[in-house]
Amino acid sequence: GSLRDAQYMFVFLPVFLVAALRAGLVCAACRPLNEG
């Protein structure tokens, strides 16, 4: 039902945000190495 969908969103959203943040940090860390 809709409650289950909301539960999945509350579980999936933080995981997605953490994954995106980690990917951004990795890209930011690798960019100077690639340019240098």
What do you see in this structure?
The relative contact order is 0.10. This protein has one helix at 2-35. The chain has one domain. The chain is built from one helix and no strands. The protein has 36 residues and is an all-alpha fold. The chain starts with a helix and ends with a helix.
Task: Itemize the secondary structure elements and their pairings.
Elements: H1 2-35
A few lines on this structure:
This protein is mostly helical and 36 residues long. The protein contains one helix and no strands. The N and C termini lie far apart (52 Å).
Annotation keywords:
single chain; 36 residues; 1 helix
Give the overall shape, derived from the CA principal axes.
Answer: rod-shaped
Proportion in β-strands? under 5%
State the distance separating the first and last CA atoms: 52 Å
Report the radius of gyration as a whole number of Å: 16 Å
Query: Which stretches are low in confidence, meaning pLDDT under 50 for 5 or more residues running?
Result: none
**Share in helix:** over 70%
Total beta strands? 0
| Mean pLDDT metric | 90
